[in-house]
Structure formats: C-alpha cells, structure tokens
Specification:
Blueprint: E1 3-7, H1 12-23, E2 27-32, E3 51-55, E4 68-71, H2 78-81, H3 85-106, E5 109-115, H4 142-162, E6 166-171, E7 174-175, H5 186-195, E8 200-203, E9 209-211, E10 213-214, H6 215-226, E11 236-238, E12 243-245, H7 246-257, E13 263-266, H8 281-287, H9 295-309
Helix pairs in contact: 1-6, 3-4, 5-7, 5-9, 7-9
Bound molecules: nicotinamide-adenine-dinucleotide (NAD) and uridine-5'-diphosphate (2 copies).
Length: about 325
C-alpha cells in the first residue's frame, strides 16, 4: 500500500484527490492549515482507516514517512491569496522547499500543483508549455504568480541538483462541487449569486476569457501524471481548451439556475489576464488524457451541489 501525502488536502481540489486515492486503496496523509480549506470537505473520510488528517502549515518543516507527495497547499482564489500576500509567497516558496526537502530525505516522488498563472497575461494564445509568460513581478497577483514560478524553479533545481523525481502540472481554471461559497472565483461567485437572486458581478466588460475544466477531469490527469515514467517531469498543461468569455459564462449560469438575477459591471482588477486557454497536446500525447466533461454538464453538477449546501451556510 502506498503512503501518500496530500498538502492542501482539505481544499477544493485536494479533497477530491483524497477521495480518489482512498477509493483505490492508498494510505493518505492529508495536511492542511485550513486557511481556505475546510474539515467539512474531508469529514466523510475521517473514520476511514487509511485516512489521516493533520493540521500543519507547510511553511514549517514536516517530518513524515511517505512514498509520494501531491503538493497542493496554497490559496488559489485571487481574493484569498491577496488577503495575506506575504504568506502566499511563503506558502509557495517555503512550502515547496520543505516538501522538496522531505521528498529528498525519504526518496518520494513529488507532484507540484502549478498554475496557468505562470503565463501571466499571455501574448501567445493558446498557451503551450514552452511559452515563458508575461508576468508582472510587482503587482497584486505577483505573490501568487511569482510564488508559483519560483516553486517551479525549485522543483527543477532539486531535480537537476539532487535527481529528485518531480512532476509539474500547470492547472487551468478548474471548478466543481466543494468550492467554498465565499471562494471568490468566478464560477462559484456566479452560481451563488444566481441561486440567491443577487446581482451577477461581472468584472470589466466581461469580454475576458477563461477555459474551465471540471474537477473530475483534472483529478484523472493528476493521477495519470503521477504514474508517468521516471524522467517525464512536465511541466504539463491540464485544463479544458473550450474557451468562454465571462459574459458567456454568466448566461450559462443564468440559464441552468433559471435565475432572474441581473448582470452588473464592476471595475476590472489590475493585471487580470485578458485571455487564457491551454494547449493540451502534451497532456494528450504523454498522458493519453483529454477532458470529458463539457462546461454545461459540469455547471449542472456544481449548481446542484450549491443548491444542497446553500441553505445551511
Ligand atoms: P483551495 O483554496 O480550495 O485549496 C488550497 C488548500 O491549501 C486549502 O485547503 C488551504 O487551507 C490549504 N493551504 C493554504 N495555505 C496552506 C499552508 N501554508 N499550509 C497548509 N495548507 C495550506 O484551492 P484549490 O482550487 O483546491 O487549489 C489547490 C491547488 O491547486 C493550489 O495550489 C492552487 O494554486 C492550484 N491551482 C488550482 C486551480 C483551480 O482552478 N482550482 C488553478 C490553478 C492552480
Ligand atoms: N525538510 C522537511 N522535512 C524533511 C526534510 C527536510 O520539512 O523530512 C525541510 C527542512 O526544513 C529543510 C528543507 O526541507 O530546510 C530543505 O531540505 P534540504 O535537505 O533540501 O536542505 P537543507 O536541510 O540543507 O536546508
Ligand atoms: N470575475 C468576474 N466576476 C467575479 C469573479 C471573477 O467577472 O465575481 C472574472 C475575473 O475578473 C477574471 C475571471 O472572472 O477575469 C476569472 O476569475 P477567477 O478569480 O475565477 O480566476 P483567475 O482570474 O485567477 O483566472
């Protein structure tokens, strides 16, 4: 039985990953400081004999014995990562150093949850892994973007310098059940606003684009990437290449919630990328993976999740 560490394991993506690992019979150690994650997300796993939950901040050293590490710890929503930007950089950078030091000591394979934000506000569209990005080093998104870029640097230096077995995945906007209702990212914001009959907050004119991946597709790619042969490090883009403007997303959410909410237009936050769409040919070739869930189907699942939890929050 493999002993697998998932940092950020009680967050949105981490909790789905823990579910999949437990269901295939692995022994899972979930580490989280509950900054944006919640015990609620893994409550159903707490009594499982192969699951262990530890409150711990990855900016501090961690001494445990494991065979594999999925490093997901880091707030992902702009609202939350900008709340304490110094802590965000520390989480990405010190967290990566600690988890790489741990992987080095125990000889574990380690996967980094990186991000499409390493491409910044891209001038190349769609974005292939070979594109180096256009990132502002001193803006309000930099704590996240540059923190994640530095984490990638650390992963590749530990690989080159210490022959560490690394895997780097660049995740594009992913959504689904267990996003926190106050997460602040666009899909959960629009759905919660629509269900509560509140105005839908479009930032800017809504013409900016994102490509939305459903959580189940993403977790499938994570597991495939972790099992690739030694030597394939990535980085590899994981996301759904179907691109939508925020206005189109709002229309889909209104349609599937049958909501009468009105659209309102708020200022566009600074450095907000204008367009984003993954080139996933490397994932197709190396992982034999393409996303299966359409935005409409994924939205329906996510809407029914929020319908269930909203009265109780
Ligand atoms: P999330 O905020 O739900 O999960 C992050 C988890 O990390 C939370 O449980 C949080 O409490 C925990 N955490 C934060 N700082 C920590 C620290 N110092 N020590 C221990 N735990 C800490 O977000 P998510 O969407 O599940 O994102 C998971 C990972 O995937 C993040 O690294 C994020 O950058 C990356 N990612 C996600 C997306 C996406 O669209 N969902 C896109 C790109 C990258
Ligand atoms: N570390 C950890 N757990 C371990 C081994 C290391 O958290 O099991 C941390 C430790 O704090 C160290 C960091 O990882 O500072 C980097 O470790 P590495 O061995 O690369 O460097 P060094 O120990 O020389 O700083
Ligand atoms: N956005 C929006 N309304 C919201 C939240 C976000 O129009 O209530 C926009 C935001 O400006 C960005 C896009 O939706 O252009 C995606 O934002 P999100 O925070 O989900 O992710 P990211 O910008 O990190 O891709």
């Amino acid at each position: 039985m493999k002993k697998i560490l998932v940092t950020g394991g009680s967050g949105f993506l981490g909790s789905h990953l823990c579910d999949r690992l437990i269901s295939r019979g692995d022994d899972v150690l979930c580490v989280d400081n509950f900054f944006t994650g919640s015990k609620q997300n893994v409550k159903h796993l707490l009594t499982h004999p192969n699951f262990e939950l530890m409150r711990h901040d990855v900016t501090f050293p961690l001494y445990v014995e494991v065979n594999q590490i999925f490093n997901l710890a880091c707030p992902a929503s702009p609202v939350h990562y900008q709340h304490d930007p110094v802590q965000t950089t520390k989480t990405s950078v010190h967290g990566a150093i600690n988890m790489l030091g741990l992987a080095k000591r125990v000889g574990a394979r380690i996967l980094q949850a990186s991000t499409s934000e390493v491409y910044g506000d891209p001038e190349v569209h769609p974005q292939p892994e070979s594109y180096w990005g256009k990132v502002n080093p001193i803006g309000i998104r930099s704590c996240y973007d540059e923190g994640k870029r530095c984490a990638e640097t650390l992963f590749f230096d530990y690989h080159r310098q210490h022959n560490l077995d690394i895997k780097v995945v660049r995740i594009f906007n992913t959504y689904g059940p267990r996003m926190h209702p106050n997460d602040g990212r666009v899909v959960s914001n629009f759905i919660v606003q629509a269900l509560q009959g509140r105005d839908i907050t479009i930032y800017g004119d809504g013409s900016q684009t994102r490509s939305f991946c459903y959580v189940d597709d993403l977790i499938e790619a994570f597991l495939k990437m972790m099992e690739t042969e030694h030597g394939f490090t990535g980085p590899v883009n994981i996301g759904n290449p179907c691109e939508f403007s925020m206005l189109q997303l709002a229309e889909l959410v209104l349609k599937h919630t049958q909501s009468k909410s009105k659209l309102i237009f708020n200022p566009l936050p600074s450095d907000d990328p204008k367009q984003r769409k993954p080139d996933i040919s490397l994932a197709q070739q190396k992982l034999d993976w393409i996303p299966k869930v359409s935005l409409e189907d994924g939205l329906k699942e996510t809407i029914s999740y929020f319908k269930k939890i909203l009265p109780t929050i």
